[in-house]
Sequence to fold (158 residues):
Amino acid sequence: MTQRLAERHTHNAKLDVLDVAPIQLANLKRKLHASSNVGLLLNDSTHLELEDNSYQDSLLFFLLHEQPWKERIATLKEAFRVTRPRGQLIIVDYHQPFAWSPLRYCLPPLLNKLEPFAMDLWKYDIHQWLPAGVSSENILKKTYFGGLYQKLQISLPA
Ligand SMILES: C[S@@+](CC[C@H](N)C(=O)[O-])C[C@H]1O[C@@H](n2cnc3c(N)ncnc32)[C@H](O)[C@@H]1O
Fold:
């Protein structure tokens, strides 16, 4: 996905990918074309070493389900801090599948074992952890694969 995002950039745009695990950044580096204009930043999403309003848009891709409650709140606060007014914050993560989906019944034992915080994304709406003052009018939510995944597109006010 990173390579494809980078290919859609206009000439002076820059994409930074941030992870707290060096091995994840090393894996990504192997997959990127040598010419990709992608910065790899070793950083903790709960305490970003970045200036306020550093980015036009930000994406949290399958990160929130990895984190305990308090860290999830801190990550979202940081994501809002570094994203510019009028920018967008996109969040992609787990979501509770619809009642007709077999995944709703067979995934929980596996998720509980492998991803201890993931069920929070099934039980609660992401609005729950957003900083105070984010209006639901600025949030567009879509679900995918029978509800297993969700995408939130949050437009930051001016
Ligand atoms: C499920 S993986 C998704 C990885 C990557 N986005 C991808 O699609 O391959 C979640 C990632 O979040 C990273 N992560 C977990 N806690 C983090 C934190 N506090 N700050 C930054 N990255 C974190 C993990 O190291 C892991 O690479």
User: Anything to note?
Assistant: The helical segments are 2-7, 22-31, 69-82, 103-114, 119-123. The chain has a mean pLDDT of 96. Residues 53 and 84 are 4 Å apart (CA to CA). The first strand starts at residue 15 and ends at 19.
